[in-house]
Amino acid sequence: MGKGFTDDDDALLAELGIAVEQKKQVKRTPREERIIAGFEDIQKFVTEQGRLPRHSEDGDIFERLYAVRLERIRELPEASDLLAELDHGNLLADAEPAEGTDDLDDDALLAALGVEVEASPITELKHVRSASERKASDDVANRQRCEDFDQFKPLFEKVQRELDSGARETRPFELKAEIRQGRFFIVEGQKAYVAEMGETTLTDQGRTDARLRVIFDNGTESNMLMRSLQRALNKDDAGRRITEAGAGPLFSDAPEEGDSTTGTIYVLRSKSDHPLVAANRDLIHKIGVTTMPVEKRIAGAQLQPTFLMAQVEVVATYELYNINQTRLENLIHRIFGKAQLDIQIADRFGRPTSPREWFLVPLFVIDDAVEKIREGTITGYEYDPERAELVER
């Protein structure tokens, strides 16, 4: 049950004299999809606010946009047929134009929002995104005017100057651990500044999260969750992290001229049946650096005390160039020294050994440490086992 009828099912129902209704697939044009998407935005506003959007000059710029958009949709000859089944709130009913409507321009409002407008008639609603586009950016769409933007505008101007001079650069966003107070990002073509970050909490799935105050360079802001900003950056193919000013990388993502030594930071989990390991398997990780292929490095792990005399699982790798293997390993072990696993394993001759490269630390913290190594800021941090995060020294 619960699955769609097959042709055989339809034939059987027909023999029983039961008519089978065939649902007609309606194919929408891109223009119709845009009109529907814009109307759904307005419906969402009405549902949340309990009223129609207004044209108040001192009102929220999104509300003013919705008000203009609703009037434009009401003017479309095809709107009544296209949206009849969707208009549950009777939003398309004739209404007196709100005061000041003639003075408003939808393109001007969109420009104030930082939305690129095509040179086309407004009734074509070219600025309205498709349902999939709206879903991809929903986490950053709920913004409001930033009342104290004058405090942040100089920061955005300074960051742009540093980008122009090469003191900062942009690179693809990768990890949630990159999201920290005081950092800049580019999402949906706008610079975003994490002005405030609340207390870190754990979700029901055991993942970290925090409430953020994010300021955008178009004068708006959003009170969003860290995971919401992460999703928005991941969904945006052009989502970028703006690096810190003057942060020379300890290692790079790609080889440069003159680089001769290539290596890998690898993170492993053990398949050992040792009681301590079995009870904390998701938290116990081996962190090492190798200049050979990781697969070759872990070959025969079950015969080596450094791998706890058991097979291992590779959970993360980070490629790096122009490295000093010993110095980098020592740095990593210093950072996580307080979380070093105290365990004894008998080697294949029965002699007790104490491997030193295993740490009781979550994978997301290791991601954060690698990010700080890449930025060149890691020397100012160490791991706090009680808070399960990197803290400034």
Topology of this structure?
Layout: H1 7-15, H2 30-49, H3 61-75, H4 79-83, H5 106-112, H6 131-136, H7 138-141, E1 144-145, H8 153-165, E2 170-172, E3 184-187, E4 190-197, E5 201-202, E6 208-209, E7 211-216, E8 220-225, H9 226-235, E9 240-242, E10 262-270, H10 275-279, E11 284-290, H11 294-297, E12 312-321, H12 325-335, E13 345-346, E14 352-353, E15 358-360, H13 363-375, E16 381-384, E17 389-392
Antiparallel strand pairs: 1-8, 2-9, 3-4, 3-9, 4-7, 5-6, 7-8, 10-11, 10-12, 11-15, 13-14, 16-17
Domain Bacteriophage T5 Orf172 DNA-binding: 279-373
InterPro entries: Phage_T5_Orf172_DNA-bd
Protein name: T5orf172 domain-containing protein
Attribute tags:
3 domains, 17 strands, 13 helices, four-stranded antiparallel sheet, seven-stranded antiparallel sheet, SH3 type barrels, alpha+beta, disordered N terminus, 393 residues
What does this structure look like?
- The protein is built from 13 helices and 17 strands.
- The strands form 5 sheets. Strands 1-8-7-4-3-9-2 form a 7-stranded antiparallel beta sheet, with helices on both faces.
- It has 3 domains: 107 residues, no CATH class; 99 residues, SH3 type barrels; 131 residues, no CATH class.
- The N terminus is likely disordered.
- α3 packs antiparallel against α5.
- Helices cover 31% and strands 20% of the residues.
- β13 and β14 form a beta hairpin.
- It is of the alpha+beta class.
- InterPro entries: Phage_T5_Orf172_DNA-bd (IPR018306).
- It comes from Roseovarius nanhaiticus.
- This is T5orf172 domain-containing protein.
